[in-house]
Amino acid sequence: AQSVTQLDSHVSVSEGTPVLLRCNYSSSYSPSLFWYVQHPNKGLQLLLKYTSAATLVKGINGFEAEFKKSETSFHLTKPSAHMSDAAEYFCVVSPSGYSTLTFGKGTMLLVSP
Amino acid sequence: DVKVTQSSRYLVKRTGEKVFLECVQDMDHENMFWYRQDPGLGLRLIYFSYDVKMKEKGDIPEGYSVSREKKERFSLILESASTNQTSMYLCASSRTSGSLGTQYFGPGTRLLVL
Q: What's the Cα-to-Cα distance from A77 to each of A49, A54, A89, A99, B95, rounded to whole Å?
């Protein structure tokens, strides 16, 4: 069985400061890991994914995440927050070779001017 | 680009009504999924289908059924709607191979059951 824990339900940053959204996972298999973003009243959009290639994964809009197997973590970072980054972010795990996804409960990112 | 469409953005139904939520994808994906999204709970998988006329229960199938008569269309059915089924419903699709699990989501249907 797999599970995902997003360690913060809300994260507040100022525009121009770094963003860190934390995610720990549990999986019996070598997992695929994803970050999805949901802007208000919009559908879910894939931000980035890890699929056992490079451990540092670059996504859209300047986000990146690092897969650390020893820590079972997949934290999402961005060097400088923008107002348009305000959204809810979901960390997601999928056992390798399976089609189903297990979602974390989400982290709301608030960006202040 | 993959496009997943859902028949309604907002629905209001009464307790006991039969409710149909429709989802259509245009990328010939084998797999389709229905989730519900509730504040603080993330997304929870209701049902999924990996082929026409095939269906599998997800984590919370109680009170729901599904239908997949054509590859591009996946319907979620609430046989007798109840107030605890008030939620945002999201449909998604994915390929079986080559995408390593990437799912593409529709915009969602916000259902209110009175």
A: 13, 16, 12, 26, 28
Q: Which of A44, A96, A106 sits opposite B105 (nearest CB)?
A: A44
The rounded percent of chain B whose pLDDT value lies above 70 is: 94
Interfacial B residues in 30-69 facing A (CB < 8 Å): 31, 33, 35, 40-45, 48, 50, 58
How far from chain centre, in Å, is Cα A34?
A: 6
Give the span between the Cα atoms of A84 and A110, in whole angstroms. Answer: 10
Say which residue the tokens 């997003």 belong to. Answer: A6
B-interface mutation test, from A34, A45, A99, most B Cβ less than 10 A away: A99
Question: Of the candidates B42, B94, B102, which has its C-beta nearest A104's C-beta?
Answer: B42
What are B59-104's pLDDT values in tens digits? 999 999 999 999 999 999 999 999 999 999 999 998 876 555 688 9
Encode pLDDT of A61-104 as tens digits. 999 999 998 899 999 999 999 999 999 999 998 876 567 888 99
Q: What single-letter DSSP state applies at residue A63?
A: -
Rg (chain B; Cα; Å): 13
What is the helix (H) or strand (E) element at residue B29, kind and residue range? none
Q: Are A109 and A88 in contact (CB under 8 A)?
A: yes
